[in-house]
Amino acid sequence: MKREPPRQAKLRTRALRVVGTNVLRREGYEKLTGRALYAADLDVADAWWGTTLRSTLPRARLLEIRRDPDFDWDGAVVVTAADLARAGRTNIVSLIGDDQPFLAAGLVEHPEEAVALVAAPSREAAERAAAHLEACYEALPAELDFETASTTFKELAIHKGTPAEAFRRADRIVARTYRSGHQEQAYIENNGVVAFPPDAARGGLREVRGSMQCPFYIVSALARLFGEPPERIRVVQVTTGGGFGGKEEFPSMISGHAALLAEACGRPVRMLYDRAEDMTATTKRHPSRVTHRTALDPDGRILAMEIDVLLDGGAYITLSPVVLSRALLHAAGPYRCDHLRITGRVAKTNTPPNGAFRGFGVPQVAFALERHLDHVAGQIGIDPVELRRRNLLADGGTTATGQSVADAGASREALDAVLARSQWAATKQAHRAWNRKNATKRRGLGLACYFHGTGFTGSGEIRLASVAAVELLKGGYVRVRTSSTEMGQGTRTVFAQIVAETLGLPCDRVETFDPDTALVPDSGPTVASRTVAIVGRIVADAAQALDRALAAKAGRECGSPWSVRDFIRAGDAHLAAGGEPFFRARFANPSNQRFDDVSYVGEAYAAYAWAATVVEVEVDLASFEVAVRRVTSAQEIGRAIHPRFAEGQLEGGIAQALGWGLFEEVVMRDGRMANGQFTNYILPTAIDTPPMDLVLLERPWEHGPFGAKGIGELPMDGGAPAALNAIADALAIDLDRIPASAERIAKAWGARSSAGRTA
User: Fold this and answer.
1) Does domain 8-39+458-595 have CATH number 3.30.365.10?
2) Secondary structure of the chain: what % helix, strand, coil (to 5)?
3) Domain 1-7+392-457+605-759 belongs to what topology?
4) pLDDT in tens, 347-367
């Protein structure tokens, strides 16, 4: 990985000592030695096992749930929607909309919907009892195709300039539609939790421990389900084996199920999905249909865009409105366009709900836009690189919402860097010569330029008002307290680096731990590329508050590095005098960000990260198997707090994007995932992961912690379109759908050959 020297910014007055270095991962030793405890490893005395009876139909009236009268039910408990109603429970999973129940009540809206819960002393006993339940249905007509579905969850629109007039004076107009399918998050650890019954000794406290991204989402969901104040709900994250968005909203569902069973049987209940249940019943990336209509002047500059985005929301709203929002805000990409009309809606289908996945709607629209630009280039006879270069934003350029972005020129820097590192021109020339000589294979090169907004959209961070804290401990130690979760991305380590750098202390003086909602403030969810850039800034502010308090008493300059000895002396004196050990900070609107959530005008994000990726492929003309030979990517991320972690995020995101673009296809039959196992859902492995040449570009963001922007989702956005552009370049074919499976490539190749024969 190459790391370009950071640009200077008004961020600091002293050299960095911890930030920008590759300190040891906080939880690395526990994971390497097998000491880390995941949800399946929790040793809970007297715990029963829970399981779920699920619908087999896409849409039906649930008439009754019958218990086998010949089965001994003394060793099991069953919970249905009727039980929730009798107990006065609120049968709604609290999120954006109030449409999704914990248990189907009267109407089933999708296959795999939970209709009953069962707990018993062992997993086998619980599954055996569930097999003796019979759900009786009256089948109803179902809508399974989101392109023809009649119900809409959400509609949005963005308008800029006068697109109709711009289209009238266009030299050329190019239109095309692009489609993408589901994608499974495929985290290494399935969903799993352990719930405890209400503890009378602790005022009826309910507790859940498990694998999750957003502990306070679960607090809110359980508080509403049971009609309890949030203070009576305790949620503890245990070591979590990946999430990628799939453990954002869904853990509220499984936590609610486990908590209901724990209350019913009066014992702790563990629920651990197997891979098949996790894949068929939980959320996925939204399938999409994106239609572009682009007006151009004679020089290939974009005059206007009309973009229509349709997403498949599945049976319930979940997070679809905000996925749609982010998709529309990124649909025009990092390009100048003064006249825009972007429309979008989410359709309801009788399929399992779709939800959060790394990228959150941006990969779908980035794929469509970057494929479309290559299509436009071919239609008007211009080089795809030159088309992008003529239209990329410059510093101060305005986005679709009219936001002027001071560092938008970083998109051009990323393009120049990736072209140079990939030796684009020379490689293209070499491919032409190689393809002429080779009768069985073809090589191609593809490019994508893209960007990603940091944090929640618009006023989301202001409304969230996240809080973080640091705690001063005896002996010169500091403990970080946030609800941001560690899922393998390095949250705990990076927060320790930020606090250590702020105070000028060694990193080993800072302690971190997995969130426990009884012990940490609500720092917001671990999503939206916000953990380091947004929460990390709040953590730094809390550390600065501690620094100010100690520096004032010690008569020293605030902001100057502490020696360990002086910090111990000052900290212990502060505590001995009865000083407050906790120092909190709340999110502050850093750049006076203003956004109209109705008109979608203004500053949609406080910062953007920018990138360009080049993919080189080789296609076998007999099997149409695609081998990715090399990936070159330049990504501008503000500042890399931990360069090795940043590199890992880029490599992982690009690999995940290539999987979505080339391999991963969810096969739906009658509204249900038919290939819900890793034996038939094809994922890229280490063998499929190509060599990657990565360039970190750093334009420090003034309001990020030491300049950091969001990085987690950016690398997911560009790999798929770059790969498809490379395949199209290799074979001179047209591809408008992902994944680009061998069958689809063969069909496009056959269509090209037929067209050539009939021409």
Assistant:
1) yes
2) 35, 25, 40
3) Aldehyde Oxidoreductase; domain 4 (3.30.365)
4) 999 999 999 999 999 999 999
